[in-house]
Design brief:
66% helix, 7 helices, globular, mainly alpha
Length: 152
C-alpha cells in the first residue's frame, strides 16, 4: 500500500499545501503541546491535547506530501496516523503504533469516562508528539523547504 494506492481507491485527493496552511497547523500543534504541558491539568486533558498535536502533525505531513483525505474516507484519524509511514518514512513505524494505541484509548474511554489516561500515558504521548514535531520540521527542511514558514 502507498499514498498513490490510497489516491487511486479514493481515500485521498491531491492537495497543494501552502506556507500559511503549514504556519496555521503548526500554530495549533504548538498550542496543543503547550496545553498538554500545563501543570495541574488532568491526565485525561493532557493526553487529549498531546493526541491532538500528534494527529495534526500527521495531517500536516500528509498535506505537505501533496495529499488530503477525501470527505468520504472513514476513520480519518487512522488514515492520518497510518500515513506517517509513507510521509516521514518507515523509521516512524514506532510513532505510528504508539499513536494508534493512543487513538484506541481515546475512542474507547475518554468520551465516556474520567480518569482513563494515566500520568505516564500523558507523559509518553506528550514526549512522542514533541519528537514528532521535531522530526516533521526536519523533514520539511529537507523535503519541502518551500513550505517551511519563517521562524521554524
Amino acid at each position: 500500500m502507498s499514498l498513490q494506492n490510497w489516491l487511486q481507491i479514493g481515500h485521498l485527493t491531491n492537495h497543494q499545501a501552502t506556507v500559511p496552511e503549514v504556519r496555521n497547523l503548526l500554530g495549533v500543534v504548538d498550542r496543543e503541546l503547550a496545553d498538554a504541558g500545563v501543570t495541574g491539568l488532568s491526565d485525561d486533558g493532557r493526553f487529549t491535547h498531546a493526541y491532538e498535536a500528534g494527529l495534526l502533525l500527521c495531517k500536516l505531513a500528509l498535506h505537505a506530501a501533496g495529499f488530503e483525505l477525501t470527505r468520504r474516507a472513514p476513520g480519518h484519524h487512522a488514515f492520518w496516523i497510518n500515513s506517517l509511514e509513507f510521509t516521514l518514512g518507515h523509521t516512524h513505524k514506532g510513532t505510528l503504533i504508539h499513536l494508534s494505541k493512543c487513538s484506541k484509548l481515546r475512542h474507547t474511554g475518554l468520551y465516556d469516562h474520567a480518569g482513563v489516561a494515566q500520568k505516564q500515558d500523558a507523559d509518553d504521548l506528550l514526549e512522542a508528539a514533541r519528537q514528532l514535531r521535531t522530526d516533521l520540521l526536519d523533514w520539511l527542511r529537507s523535503q519541502h523547504p518551500n513550505l517551511l514558514p519563517s521562524g521554524y
